[in-house]
TrEMBL record:
This is 3-isopropylmalate dehydrogenase. SUPFAM superfamilies: Isocitrate/Isopropylmalate dehydrogenase-like. Keywords: Amino-acid biosynthesis, Branched-chain amino acid biosynthesis, Cytoplasm, Leucine biosynthesis, Magnesium, Manganese, Metal-binding, NAD, Oxidoreductase. Substrate binds at residues 97, 107, 135, 221. Homodimer. The record marks 142, 189 as: Important for catalysis. It is an enzyme of class 1 (oxidoreductase). It comes from Flavobacterium polysaccharolyticum. Mg(2+) binds at residues 221, 245, 249.
Length: 353
């Protein structure tokens, strides 16, 4: 199969972890007789530095022509520490999501048997955890009208949703639940927010079309509590943009490291695959960042974008083997054990494929 993939390394450790994912993907392509064409493009702070905008038109054109997008991370301290900066890397991420129609963020959370004790939560709390968040990605408060009034003394951010936006996200949630344990949780704040009441009534109306799915409705604060008490009680959760942003980061630490979880953003034109971690600028160039989340994101890409399940499973299997044998970066290395460099982990994975 010929695979045309846009490669957006981004900022900070993005290029380092992307490099290892490319090495592993190329090894899989060779093993299974595929032909990958990688097309690099700029986004984030590096794009601002180069052309003045965080998501250039040329990058968008490359993404639109690609079968899938593999993305690293964006962000730089010089923008994080300047609230008045007129152009920011994160604006590129939001624009990319909007222009590519990436309305559903798929964020799995699962545990690795060999790392179960790395989690900040007790073993008995998290064993068997295997859940997926579907976060709405192009609506809500992040995209609503925002501004200042009263000479800058009052700020506002409007949260707006249409029924159609809720329906298309919920449809993916119901369909995903049908392939798993047939349990769906709608996360909202319907006791306070009108947008949440729209979410809940829309999902209730749709539920009759999926009679096999057990649907529950929980307030976001209750879910935040239960995620650290009984995360293995959840299967598929759907929620709006802001709630999803917060809850998925909370869920990400269950596995023991933010450097382990992959994600996908799917929608109207193409699909984008990325690790859940940020650009980690403090580690830039040190060759210490964990590349496994990016590599597992590539596995998601092989399976979901191209239907190549055997290839995806081969990547997951060799990642599990690396964890079991302690071929890990410093964030996962046991006390007194060797911590491998980012590139060494990638080389080991390639050698063992």
């Amino acid at each position: 199969m010929k695979l045309n993939i846009a490669l957006l390394a981004g900022d900070g450790i993005g290029p380092e972890v992307i490099n290892e994912a490319v090495k592993v993907a190329d090894a899989i392509a060779k093993k299974f007789n595929h032909d990958i064409t990688w097309t690099p493009a700029l986004t984030g702070a590096c794009a601002i530095d180069a052309v003045g905008v965080p998501y250039p038109d040329e990058t968008h054109e490359i993404c639109m022509k690609a079968d899938a997008v593999l993305f690293g991370a964006i962000g730089h301290p010089k923008y994080d520490n300047d609230p008045s900066a007129p152009v920011r890397p994160e604006q590129g991420l939001l624009l990319m999501r909007k222009k590519l129609g990436l309305f559903a963020n798929v964020r799995p959370t699962f545990t690795f048997p060999s790392l179960i004790d790395n989690s900040p939560l007790k073993r008995e709390r998290i064993e068997g955890t295997d859940l997926v968040f579907l976060r709405e990605l192009t609506g809500g408060i992040y995209f609503g009208e925002k501004g200042r009034r009263d000479d800058g003394e009052t700020a506002f951010d409007n949260c707006v949703y249409t029924r159609a936006e809720v329906q298309r996200l919920a449809k993916k949630g119901f369909e995903l639940a049908m392939t798993r344990s047939k349990k769906l949780c709608c996360v909202d704040k319907a006791n306070v927010l009108e947008t949440s009441r729209l979410w809940r009534e829309t999902v209730q109306t749709m539920a009759k079309d999926y009679p096999e799915v057990e649907v529950s409705y929980e307030f976001v604060d209750a879910v935040a509590m239960r995620l650290v008490q009984w995360p293995n009680s959840y299967d598929v959760l759907i929620t709006e943009n802001l709630f999803g942003d917060i809850l998925t980061d909370e869920a990400s630490v269950i596995s023991g490291s933010m450097g382990l979880m992959p994600s996908a953003s799917v929608g109207e034109h193409t699909s984008l695959y990325e690790p859940i971690h940020g650009s980690y600028p403090q580690a830039t160039g040190l060759n210490i960042a964990n590349p496994l989340a990016t590599i597992l994101s590539a596995a998601m890409m092989f399976e979901d974008a191209f239907g190549l399940k055997e290839e995806a499973q081969a990547i997951r299997a060799v990642v599990n083997k690396s964890l079991e044998e302690g071929i890990v970066t410093e964030d996962l290395a046991a006390k007194g054990s060797k911590a491998y460099k980012t590139s060494e982990v990638g080389d080991w994975l390639v050698a063992n494929l």
